[in-house]
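Record type: monomer structure entry
Structure origin: computed from sequence
Chain ID: A
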Amino acid sequence: MNKYSFSIFILSIGISFQLSAQDTKNNLNADSIAVVEKLNEFVGAFSNLKWEKFTACFADDATAFFPPSAKFPYRANNKKEIENIFSLVFENAKKQKQSAPYIIIQPKDVKVQMAGTVAIVTFLLNDPAMLGRRTIVLQKMSDEWLIIHLHASGVII
């Protein structure tokens, strides 16, 4: 099951515009860093099967598409449905290994795209039989970035 295996927005009009642009740049940098930190938190919790930390990364109304190995071809429509599917992944991973990290997740070619209070993170996962593709969409809610959508797919290589 390690196939699930699975880091940026007036004294005088001229001065305030310049300050506003600098503030926006600083917020984008801070937000992009926060997004990468949330991604690291998510991957760490997943790798080490830390259930509470893992599920805390998702918004209540999050959605997800899972790779074929999950044997769930439909969209999970909320956090509870996502938890139901991932609980099986966690159980299987614990059966296959006795200690952390239970699942090796090494995101490659990570790209973070910031769009205000939304961030889109895409990356690849190498697997001997399949190239894993992941998209994680996060939204800033009350100063916390939460996953609102996860899309996992794979291509046989």
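Annotation 1: Confidence is low (pLDDT under 50) at residues 1-24.
Annotation 2: Residues 80 and 99 are 26 Å apart (CA to CA).
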